[in-house]
Amino acid sequence: MFLIEEWRAKLSNRSKLTTKPRYQFLTLIRNSEYPIICLFCCLQIYLHMKMVFWGPGQLFAIFLVLIVVLVSLWIYFRQSIFRCDSKADLKGKTVIVTGANCGIGFYTALDFAKRNARVILACRDKIKAEKARQEIISLSQNSNVLVGLVDLCYMKSVKDFADKINSEESRLDVLVNNAGVVSTGKPKEITDEGFETIFAGNYFGPFLLTNLLLDLMKKSAPSRIINVSSVVNKFGTIDFDNLNAEKSFQFQKRYFDSKLAQILFTRELARRLEGTGVTANVLHPGSVASKLLRNLFILLRIPIEFFIKLFCKTAEEGAQTSIYLAVSEEVTDISGKYFVDSDIKESETNPLSRDKDIAKQLWDISESLTGLKDK
């Protein structure tokens, strides 16, 4: 704070200003603990520049302030990123990561491979999955990496994949439901099974897959289920008459609702798994520069991707919370919670996500729609 007071004093008296205030300001930015301090200093600089320059000079001052604000926020953001520092070894354990051919899923799977786990990449595209497998093997020096084909938008594909895992694998220690769909690039797409693809890929598919693998996970206990949701769950609602877009469709709304459904699913799952040795938690990975936006309309995608790349986490950084929940001893007995980085952040979830009646009703309907009740 001494630096701030000194800077304010200097700006209040132009005659006492040093000849190179910009260098002092940059030093202050680097040492600043909170971006709000940087914003305050930017305002002071603007007021000073306004006194010095007139006309075009004011535009220059505004431009300078904007640049410094962006840089200061970027520095603060980079310094505050969480990384899992657990040294846990996963030798002898089997993990499944859905959507592991790119983005957060790829780096989650890579980390598990480096920890000597048997890693199954659950992907829908065989070519992309095989390419990811070869890269993970090369980077981790762990050849025990396999590809499993599954399209979470199609319940038959989910059942076929689960049957294969249950018949070929002797254990399953970690399941990371990472795969996600933002937009298919079409106004609305319904599968031949009657499922709207965004909600199916983000919720119905993971719901069915998890339940079909539960017996194997219980046999392998202690084991962990990690669901990747998003902070946008706050904007979601659950309309039981519109789960498959029977009445209306807006792709943003479908995404928000599906992320809320993931949290409701996690909480109800954790309740049902009490005493089994299997835990279930859900997370927000942070704002991540991933490929989820690849199907957005190009005029929307370009500006969004610019700011995402500037201020958002990389996919590797976004994978850290998934990794933490899978390997850390700190969460061994924690279940049914919503995490941001390594912290439980229940206050950052939609109040509806804590409604037990809605969670149970959603579970019952999901059982019926996915055919799980018939198993």
Automatic annotation (TrEMBL):
<dbReference type="InterPro" id="IPR036291">
    <property type="entry name" value="NAD(P)-bd_dom_sf"/>
</dbReference>
<protein>
    <recommendedName>
        <fullName>Retinol dehydrogenase 13</fullName>
    </recommendedName>
</protein>
<keyword id="KW-0472">Membrane</keyword>
<keyword id="KW-0560">Oxidoreductase</keyword>
<dbReference type="GO" id="GO:0016491">
    <property type="term" value="F:oxidoreductase activity"/>
</dbReference>
<dbReference type="Pfam" id="PF00106">
    <property type="entry name" value="adh_short"/>
</dbReference>
<keyword id="KW-1133">Transmembrane helix</keyword>
<feature type="transmembrane region" description="Helical">
    <location>
        <begin position="59"/>
        <end position="77"/>
    </location>
</feature>
<feature type="transmembrane region" description="Helical">
    <location>
        <begin position="34"/>
        <end position="53"/>
    </location>
</feature>
<comment type="similarity">
    <text>Belongs to the short-chain dehydrogenases/reductases (SDR) family.</text>
</comment>
<dbReference type="InterPro" id="IPR002347">
    <property type="entry name" value="SDR_fam"/>
</dbReference>
<keyword id="KW-0812">Transmembrane</keyword>
